[in-house]
Amino acid sequence: MAAILGLVDHDPLTSELARLHRGRGLRNPDLGQALGPTLRAALGIDDAKPGPQAVLEQLRTAIASLPQDLQVVLLHGIGARSSEPFLQDRVAAAAEVLHVTPRTIRRRLVQANTLVARALRDPSLTGTSAQPVRLLSHHVTTDLRRPVVRLVSAKTVLRRRGGEIELRERFGTPGNRGPEAPTLSVGGAELLDLEPISASVWEASLRLPEGVAGTTAAYALTVEEPGIAALSPFTVAVPMQLMNRCAVTVHFGDLHPVTHLREVRNALPVTLYEPPVLGPDAGPAPPTVTLTADRPQLGLAFGYAWVWAEAGAG
Fold first, then answer.
1. What is the pLDDT of residues 239-296, one digit of tens each?
2. How far apart are CA 5 and CA 111, in angstroms?
3. 8's torsion region: left (phi>0), alpha (psi -120 to 50) or beta?
4. Strand 133-143 and strand 149-159: pairing?
5. How far apart are alpha carbons 306 and 265 in whole angstroms?
6. Residue 221 and residue 230: Cα distance in Å, rounded?
7. In 3D, which of 13, 18, 25, 26 has the Cα closest to residue 1?
8. CA quadruple 258, 263, 269, 270: dihedral sign
9. Among 309, 312, 311, 291, which Cα is nearest to 301's?
């Protein structure tokens, strides 16, 4: 295993973190023995037989300092977001979520272990490898009550350092708009720049105002669309970084009627594009629906899917 994961043998904490990935990871029936003495001390765990949730709670802040892709990698590696009994299967699951090869996941797992070890040694770490904020909550909203559709992504974060903080937010837009920028407004932060990543994905550079380390900040991105022509018949959140809570709200109203409304929980995002299996015709959706998830599973979708009623499909 040391050869596969490329353990840094002279660093006991990094080596013990890598050892935690073996077998069932946090689901190891002898988890107490799987925790090395250096890792135990760093986590402040004295219990001879700690539970997986207790260990994960002590790791949570350090993991949250990682870039989003490394959070996905490490949480799959330790078995917190993938239930497969063997590491190679959890590596494959992470590779599918991030659309990379298993070899790339193994390489990133080594990097994630190193960065988590650094964060455990120095909780105040704010170098280039650490995120300047920790994501606490994310609320996704689709508002279909007006001719102009509003898509809102609102986040609450914990500041890891004081002063102004610059962030980058990637978001998807309906359809293939080419070089045309979406109609975007930002609340709670200053929009510095907006660049296309692909035909439907954009990256916004934001600046949070002055603040004190350890306090919370909230900001929101709102995209307006002229109608539903380019919209998919679903609104979901697909968490790609650790957070306390995620929520999805859809305001249907009467302007764009829908039927066959269903909840989506822990689904692979690609399955949302498959034709739904429909039962008997369903009545109209409620005016507003909201779904919340505490500590949502990374890389899986949850929210709502529906079928456009004939009156709203044009």
1. 888 889 999 999 998 888 899 999 999 887 767 888 877 777 677 889 999 999 998 8
2. 10
3. beta
4. antiparallel
5. 14
6. 19
7. 18
8. negative
9. 291
Q: Which residue has the higher pLDDT, 63 or 289?
A: 289
pTM of the predicted model over 0.85: no
The answer to whether the CB of 158 falls within 8 A of the CB of 123 is no
d(CA 243, CA 246): 7
Spatial CA neighbour of 143 closest among 59, 256, 243: 256
* Residue 124 confidence (pLDDT): 61
Within 10 A of 113 (CB to CB), how many other CB atoms are there?
Answer: 29
